[in-house]
Design brief:
By secondary structure, this protein is mainly alpha-helical. Helices cover about 80% and strands about 0% of the residues. It is built from two helices and no strands.
């Protein structure tokens, strides 16, 4: 995983950001 946990944790606070992180994760897995 090339995504820092800090970003994922921060996204947990905002529901809207959660979707953005989800997309980033999918792109990173590609």
């Amino acid at each position: 995983m090339g995504i820092p946990l800090s970003i994922v944790r921060r996204a947990g606070d905002d529901g809207a950001s959660r979707q953005s992180v989800r997309v980033m994760v999918q792109e990173a897995l590609r």
